[in-house]
Amino acid sequence: MSLVMDQRPTEPGIVLTAEQQRRRRARSIAIALALGIFVALIFAVSLVKGPGVMIRPL
Amino acid sequence: MALSGETGELTAPLRAGGYAEPSMAGVGDYLALMKPRVMSLVVFTALTGLVVAPGHLHPVLALFALVCIAVGAGSAGALNMWYDADIDALMGRTAARPIPAGHVQPGEALAFGLVLAGFAVTFLGLMINWLAAGLLAFTIFFYAVVYTMWLKRWTPQNIVIGGAAGAFPPMIGWAAATGGIGVEAILLFLVIFFWTPPHFWALSLCRTDEYARAGVPMLPVVAGEAETRRQILVYTLALLPVGVAPSVLGYAGAAYGGIALLGGALMVTWAWRLYRAPDKLIEPLAKRLFAVSILYLFVLFAALLVERVFGLEHVGIPLGRALA
Asked: Going by C-beta distance under 8 Å and a sequence separation of 6 or more, which residues neighbour residue A5?
């Protein structure tokens, strides 16, 4: 059993080219920046609106 | 991603193993999906609606509302590019867009648009108010579904009715600031609504062959250039009094009124020249009217902003106040 689990897959699977890796990294950084800005905005709005930010009549 | 011949059929490339090619989309491709130039106009008109509305919205909340409106507009752009990828591939103006260029796969654009739309509407509702969020949701729906999926390929009135989507942002800004909809917000809506046909038909006069090849029934394709030029003139003549109306009715000052009158007269002049133009001058004059129309809308809304910032909105003798 342990032999089977230790076996590595023989097919290489998806291997990204250098350009694909570069673009994926750029996308990841952009997503991180966007999420950071989003969190900062929500934090700022929460400060302005006070602790009852989600409690409001529809 | 590859295009299948002249049909513009989009197919995702598959590797020998049967799985899709890893995405080659760059950050710029995703920004392009959001139609940044359209987005900037949306933000500007929404900002105007937000600033000229009575009452006060905290600057942080105003910034948050504008970000939500911008992202909502971007989501509508992405959904539009997802659905229109087939005809975009057939037109020179749009062939380099991320999907027909093969940088972004249709499914990526669809997911991107839906996620952005969900975030924008939800957080505008939670943090600002649900009227503004509802208007934003309706605007995205109107642009992505009513205009893109239904009107655009069906009727030459596509950009007349669909133009409402572009006219909503100042109303959303107003609703974000006040929680309601005022007469002035409706006037701003009407200004953009009547501005849209001459603006887009001027552009389409320069792209008639491309629209015909793509099977999009723009007015010049269906009714011809002469009828298009006539309708451009009619809508421009209607735009002039609508543009001046906020000043006449007392919602804007004399400075805005003067600028709206001069700008409207300039638009009518170029529309008239286009209407009377010989065939060889149609394209250059249409391009000029297209440029003038962008300038007109920018200056008009900038005048409203400046008047409000400097407290000049009540300078003048508005007809509305005189009658009251």
From this structure: none
Among B217, B185, B213, CA closest to B201: B217
Q: Answer yes or no: do B22 and A27 touch at CB < 8 A.
A: no
- H or E element: which one contains B245? helix B225-248
| Ranges of each domain in chain A | 14-48
Contact assignment for A20 to B22 by CB distance below 8 Å:
yes
A57 touches chain B (CB under 8 A): no
Note whether A23 contacts B: Cβ–Cβ < 8 A.
yes
Comparing alpha-carbon positions, the chain A residue that sits nearest to B123 is: A42
pLDDT at A51 over 80: no
Q: In chain B, which residues have pLDDT < 70?
A: 1-20, 316-324
Q: Which residues contact B60 (CB under 8 A, 6 or more apart)?
A: A44, A45, A47, A48
Q: Describe the crossing of helices B183-205 and B225-248 by its angle, rounded to 10 degrees.
A: 160
- Report ipTM for this prediction: 0.80
